[in-house]
Amino acid sequence: MSILEVVNKLSSLNKSVATAESCTGGLIASTIVDVPGASDCFNEGYVTYSNEAKMKNLGVSQETLASYGAVSKQTACEMARGVRNRAGADLGIASTGIAGPGGGTVEKPVGLVYIACAYSDDKCTFRELHLSGDRSQVRKAAANEAIKLLAECLDSSN
């Protein structure tokens, strides 16, 4: 499903979406608002690059960050749930990862990205991505995968 189809479907179903982004730095939100009519379905977006911002703006718990790290499925789902709740949106989509070129470790290499979509109080779907390329390519690929996940969650939420 293309981003145009996602926005049109969100609008036709009278559903809203909000974004919480770390490594994609606003690219998911930008992809959505590039579509005419996005104001019918896009509530708001947060770029929460630091752990402090994730806690303050999205309600990610300090325990989650300490136990699993910022780059984890647990953090991605807390980000998605947090933005969904804070924005009063039907769906929350989130990204967190290591775009590079630095910052990677053996356990969490450059290109590791988690995307998550929360579409009810207790439903969060995530994907672990292993992306390649330079920083820009990793960020763009992660944003594209997040839009695909949003489409899947939109289908699941009906």
Written overview of the protein:
- The longest helix has 22 residues.
- The chain has a single domain, classed as Alpha-Beta Complex (Maf protein).
- Helix 1 packs parallel to helix 6 and helix 2 crosses helix 6.
- It has 158 residues and is an alpha/beta fold.
- The chain has a 5-stranded mixed β-sheet with strand order 2-1-3-4-5, with helices on both faces.
- Strand 1, helix 2 and strand 2 form a beta-alpha-beta unit.
Task: Please describe the topology of this protein.
Layout lengths: L2 H10 L4 E5 L5 H7 L8 E6 L3 H8 L3 H7 L4 H15 L3 E7 L14 E9 L2 E8 L4 H22 L2
Parallel strand pairs: 1-2, 1-3
Antiparallel strand pairs: 3-4, 4-5
Features:
158 residues; 5-stranded mixed sheet; alpha/beta; 6 helices
Name of the CATH architecture: Alpha-Beta Complex
Q: Going by CATH, what is the homologous superfamily?
A: CinA-like
Tell me the fraction of residues in β-strands, as a range.
Answer: 15-25%
Read across the widest sheet, the strand sequence of neighbours is: 2-1-3-4-5
What count of helical segments does DSSP give?
6
- The N- to C-terminal Cα distance equals 16 Å
